[in-house]
Acyl-CoA dehydrogenase
Amino acid sequence: MMFKRTIFDAHHLELKDQVSGFLDSQVVPFHDHWAAQQATPRDIWHQAGENGLLCRTIPAEYGGHGGDFLESVVVIEALADRRISGILTCLQSDIVAPFILKLGSEAQRKRWLPDFTCGATLGAIAMTEPQGGSDISALTTTATSHGNSFVLNGTKTHISNGSEADVIIVAARSDDPGAANAQPAISLVMAETERQGTHRHAISKAGMPALNTGQITYENCVVPETNLLGAKGMGFIYLMTFLGIERLVLAIYAQAFAERLLYDLIADCDGRPTAEGTVLDYQNTRFSLADLYSSCAVNRAFIDQCIVAANAGHPDPKSACMAKLRATETLRQIAALGVQFRGAAGISGDSGQQAMQDMSDSAVQSVWGGTSEIMLDVIGRGLASVL
Ligand SMILES: Cc1cc2nc3c(=O)[nH]c(=O)nc-3n(C[C@H](O)[C@H](O)[C@H](O)COP(=O)(O)OP(=O)(O)OC[C@H]3O[C@@H](n4cnc5c(N)ncnc54)[C@H](O)[C@@H]3O)c2cc1C
């Protein structure tokens, strides 16, 4: 670990060993193959469940581990530290499951959460549409009331686990404003993917290739009203609220990924001999890496502060935007130098392939969960209130 941290206790460190053991034996040896295939075997989700990687914070009464947010952090960081994208458990555990826990009825929690924890059910959340993902209020997928059902129509794109998930939280425009008042009338509907009128396919991509990413089209897909999450028409407010924790989760992943890349790059520069010593002995290399090391140290302190606040039940959405912005932009700088400072080895052979993959994987981080421009917009809109 690069930086001294004080947020974990012995129990978290024990969990870290358990998670690391599973990832090193069951995931890392196969991950390059999954990335090349752009597919991760479904069984690995069951194994992840059996080995305690899923739904750490979901209460035991709903089949979860009843742990604190720090347990989730342990799992997220263990994944990022190994550059794992194929089985991004935080999507299931810390982004999708909390919607069901916090907004779902007792029946909905009991129906889905135990299977989320053991990996029998794979979940996803679908906000983004082909015409744009940054402005959620402009989404056009509709959930039209029809008797005791909703009828879904529209297309969602770039959805993580989208073409493999068993159930997807679909953000769709309702046909009446419900309780949303001035907000766009969006509702969140749990749509099982086996339902008629669901058409989907995987999207191939350069970044995080082992992670399934799908496009889903709903064509008169009938979903019972009992699958509505929370109140009708309140979806926009729910999404904005939950995006805070989603962005913190993505910042945690990006920060641990950045530290891994920087650590590897320092080691490679130090190990590459030159006529005068090593690549690390060049002043330019040292200055650049010292600058990024300092950024990582400062980001680490701020993100740990955000983690502690979230663990105490006080996550701050704006701080999450700042954390995601800084962690992902620093990560992208490190990944770019990971190519340059390795010379030809940064673009050729196994090391070059890894450096290029790191660049592509890094590019994903400043796009999903809201782009860096959107982070700046959210932070910027609150500037007057800091005076
Ligand atoms: C690997 C991957 C996984 C994903 N998983 C999911 C998922 O599980 N669920 C889901 O719903 N979505 C998911 N997404 C989609 C992701 O959230 C969107 O890609 C992202 O929100 C940006 O939307 P967009 O791609 O439509 O870009 P656009 O919104 O079209 O933006 C294009 C460009 O315009 C800029 N821009 C847009 N609005 C503004 C503005 N107001 N001010 C300044 N600049 C602006 C953007 O920053 C960007 O540079 C995923 C994306 C990727 C790459």
User: Anything to note?
Assistant: The chain has three domains: 10-121, 125-232, 237-382. Strands lie at 123-126, 142-146, 149-160, 167-174, 186-192, 198-202, 213-224, 228-229, 273-274, 277-278.
